[in-house]
Every structure is written in C-alpha cells, then in structure tokens.
Amino acid sequence: METVKAFRKEVAKITRALWYTDEEACVFCGRENGPICPACTTDYLHPELGRCKGCGKLIAITKLRCLDCEAGKGPKQLDQVTAWGHYSGGVREFVQNVKFNAHPREVMKIARPFSDWAIRQLPAADGIVAVPMHATRLAERGYNQAEVISSALHWELGLSILPGVERIEPTASQVPLSRQERLHNLQGAFVVRQPEYLEGRSVWLVDDVTTTGATLEAVAEVLRSSGVRSIFGLCLAAGLEKKLVPSQI
Ligand SMILES: [Zn+2]
Ligand SMILES: [Zn+2]
C-alpha cells in the first residue's frame, strides 16, 4: 500500500513538473512568473520605449522614426512597422530556439501577450501574410517560423492568414550584409502567385525578427504591385536605436 502511495505521489510530482512548472516559467529567462516575468518585460519588451514607424526599431518614446529612417535608409513600401521586443539576450535565445531547435510550439506560450500587444499597436487588417520561406529551407526545417507566429495571431485575434506569396530564391544568410546588399540579394526572391487573395486588402506582414527591414521591404514590394492597399509589418523582435542613451533604456 505504502509503495502504491509513494508511486502515486511520484507520478503526481512528474505530472506537475511536466504540465505546470513549464507553464509558469518565463519563456525568456526560465524563472517563474511566466509567460513573461516582470524583469524580462523591463529588459526586453521595454514598454517605456516607442517603435520606429519606418522599421520597428525600439526608439525613444518622444520620436517617430529612428535615425536610419530619418536619413531615408528604412523600408518605404510599408505603412508602418512594429516589433514587440528587443532582439537580445532571452528574446534572441527564444527566437533561435523556435527556429533552429525545432521548438515551434514555444510560440504558443507567447501567443496571448504578443497578440494583445500587436492589436494595440497596429490598425486592424483584413488578414495576415507570413514572410514566406523557400521550399528547400522549408523542407530542411519542417516549418516556417513566420507562419507559426501568424498562426498564433490567427488563433488569438481571428485574423485570417492570406496565401499567395512565395519565395522563389533561396537567399543565403543575410547577417553579415549591409542593407543595400540585402536588398540587392532579395531582388526577385518573392513572387505573388495568387493576387486574388490580396488585391485591395490591408495586411499585417509577419516575420520573426527585423533588423534592416530589407526582407519586409522585399515582400512588401510584391504585395504593393499586386494591389495590396495597406501593409503593416509586425515582428517579434527588432534592434534598438544605437544612439539611445542608457538612461532611456
Ligand atoms: Zn523572465
Ligand atoms: Zn527606423
């Protein structure tokens, strides 16, 4: 009898560990008070900062655009871009875990807070377009993280996911490249196959991370030429304005 009791207790402990501890853990630091603890909200989501309307970068709340966009070096085809958090530390680990360690379901843990935030930042749209992934890359990874994020938004907000855009050029890593080089690399990378889904619509264009805005811009370009009315870029994370003095962050 005692053995059965001990066994049950052990099973209950394992079940709790599997179901509850994980749910309560912060997705960015692994400590308590999930899905996002107050410390990570402060460190990564920066509610005190604004977002550059042009590229989504985190900037001083008093500004509308970052220095790059003010200098005309930002995306031009989007009506607005916004990003939830700063791409650093726990946020970077989270995104990389989703992308490279086959953990797309992690995104569901942040579905609610991310969607709640997004709907307050952007005008409502007719649907969502996920930045597409090339078929070869998709076959390697098994999923497109931008689609996974779009599914979370669809689930929480009821926005439809609009098909129609494809990536036809497998672009190599853009990380070491300048914005100009990235734009050049992305020329002809995307194509709209079914404009009937997109014409006259307003869309949220969703990706995991934006740095220079080059990828969003390249997709936005083909969306515009297919008659999309308004394009609002939405990403999980973006960079932080370099000139932001430490007291402002
Ligand atoms: Zn945390
Ligand atoms: Zn900007």
Automatic annotation (TrEMBL):
Coiled coil: none annotated. Residues 140-246 form the Phosphoribosyltransferase domain. Pfam families: Pribosyltran. Signal peptide: none annotated. It comes from the Bacteria. Belongs to the ComF/GntX family. This is Phosphoribosyltransferase domain-containing protein.
